[in-house]
Amino acid sequence: MFSIVEKRHWYFLLSALIIIPGLVAMIYSIVVFGSPVKLSIDFTGGALLELRFDRPVQPAQVRQVFVENEYLGTTVQTTSDDQTVLIRSKTMDPADKERIIGELETQFGPVEELRFESVGPAVGAEVTRTAAVAVAVAALFILAFIIFAFRKVPKAFRYGVCAIAAMIHDILVTVGLFSLAGLLLNWEADALFLTAVLTVIGFSVQDTIVVFDRIRENIPRRRGEPYETIVNRSLLETIHRSLATQLNAIFVLIALLIFGGATMKQFVAVLLVGLMSGTYSSIFNAVPLLVVWETGKLIGRPRRATA
Amino acid sequence: MKGRNTVLLIAIVILALIAIYIILPNSPGLHIELGPIKIDRDFEIRQGLDLQGGLQVLLEADLPADEELDAGALDQAATIIGNRVNALGVVEPLVQTQGSRRIIVELPGVQDPDVAIATIQETSLLEFIDAGYEFLPLGTTVQTTYPFLWSEGATTSDLAPGEVLPTPSSQAPLTATTPLSSTEGLTLEVPSVITGAEVSEPVPTPVPTEPAAPTRVYATVLTGQHLKSANPYRDPNTGQFGVDLELTEEGTAIFADFTTQHADYDQSPFYYLSIALDKEIVSSPHIVNPIPEGRAQISGDFSLEEVDRLAIQLRYGALPVPLRVETIRTIGPTLGQDSVQSSIQAGTVGLVIVLLFMLIYYRMPGLLADLALIFYGLLNLAVYEAGWPVLLLISLLMIFSYLMDREDVWPLLLGSGLLILTFVFATAGFAGVTLTLPAITGFILSTGMAVDANILVFERMKEELRAGRSLESAMEAGFSRAWTSIRDSNISTLITCGILYYFGSTFGAGAVRGFAITLALGVVINMFTAITVTRTFMRMAFRWLGEKLKTNKFLLGA
Lengths: 307, 558
Known about the structure:
A: Multidrug efflux transporter AcrB transmembrane fold, Alpha-Beta Plaits, 2 domains, four-stranded antiparallel beta sheet, B: 3 domains
């Protein structure tokens, strides 16, 4: 019988390899920007204006108009083509926006307003607070649920902790990679990003539960076998299902990524990474952790298969 | 049991047909009139702001944080804004209070967001107009000379149709006013004909006036700008309630002039200085005495609530609470339409891939799971369009399936739970799900996850077959043994959805909530379709094709 858990030190190493760059990016972000990921106006407050002109424009010139109107910290960049610009500034009064667009039209010709968002700073702070609460509550609920679901199994607490450990692994991978994307691709975390993270948390646990469930079932059936073997057997029995389910979700998400709306792409990408990490962590982190806890051995010793 | 399975199958097919009827693009809807029962529903997909384009505004009470806000005042403000918004001609606008200090306004498909914002934000126009000897009843709509004021020479006049209102420059200068002599604090008395009940909440509604006869245009004497404060009071002698007005310096001067010129000393014919909000009369007091020091009282047969409300309205215009724009989002329609197209594309591609995968990997059971998946999709869409009635049907079907096959208890529990939820939703008026991009993403994702339950069952089935069980018992065992895993993993998803819903509601944006709702709905419906429906199909298949399958393991997906 092929032993998965035997090679667990490799899996932990792989996880570390993925998490560490993300961690570095997050720390860098905190130092430079004050937060582990780049935040969108949903959290910081501010304004976002997307305009399409009838002809190509120079961002610097567009920016000048804003500066002249007392919107000093404004950034302007072109997005899909030379004619479309994305403008970020501090919270903008609709009346001001009117006036500025009028000036832009005088200078650069007809302008189409694709979208406009302005978030007051009070709302931004509130959203941040609610987000932190939501993540904390999610973790608590799920821990409670796992402990409840596994209450009849000896040492139920371990299962809860290992599941949470896998969940934290997924969060670190997802947020870390997003932080990297923020630094390199200018991705910003908005309310949808948080939604994706919370969803990843939910699904990460889902995978873990299926495997733990099988272990729970096998323990009374296979008394006499060492724990490591029971766990390994459970893994092999469920791996088909985990991969099949994972593939389906991935197919769907990739379809969304390729064909879906532009505003959803970041959201879908985060989900994709998170879900893959979720399955990986359930099989290769949560379960081996259980074994480590039980046996106290980080590196598995190859055992001769018992029929 | 076989007969009961057939009955269940028929029930499933009926529900599927109902769902298709609901979803069809040109569905005729449901219009029935049976005695007291009258149903008039159209079935269509509601598009959210990000798909239709439109405007979303979050308004916050512009008062210091520690100043208490009367809950009624915020509701009133929301109602008034709702009326203003209706005047814009927006289809399906949404105006809702949030918490104790906020109002959300959503205007889908609005053509000119900037006009909309201006309409929402502006405080109403308060005017004191020269009505002469004409008593203007409550609610009358009037035209005024605003911004041309009486002090600048405006007079109340009758305009023939097509005649233009004279502007300040063309008028003769004002004649000198008589010197002020009286110093008594005199009251504008409201004739007792107007009882308190008539001073209803003045709601600015647009009244299209197509005058065939000459229109009377009233001179604006004072506006809200001349009002310094308005407070309710109670006369200790008569016990009557009234509103105490205090004018600004400029207002005092104008008011003194006017009242001196037109005081009627409480003798018929009375001279009226009517008060209008957004061109609608709220009060028509007459001028008893000249009032030189800029204080006046409006008295009459008012209740305490009425004077409270009137005072607030006079102070703030029609909005009882000053509001400022806290958050604003506009989406242009082109961006929205692109999103719809791409969502449909993505969903179709995703669904096809999943269907193919199941078919190839599990063959015959896969085909049945595909059918169940299509049924699942139909049910979801039907709920989005029709709302709680479909939930009701689904829960009844679940309970029915329990009755047909008394093995597992859980369809009964799930069905009953869903039934209770349905009643909750029905009373809350849940008529359907508004589709936003995140909601669509949630639905598509739930479709991908939907096969998870099926996969769990089929893998378990394969195991049982390998262990030597017979075909039928392997199938049944597969379903019952996999149930605990399915239940536990889906519950954790539901917990996540609950948290997302809570997160979405404080944010004031439907987007996050939409995702949570479609995902949660998908999970619940999936627990039913993946297990009960697929099992029904499989039982049927085994009955008809059982012999062939026993010899052809490949077809079974083993």
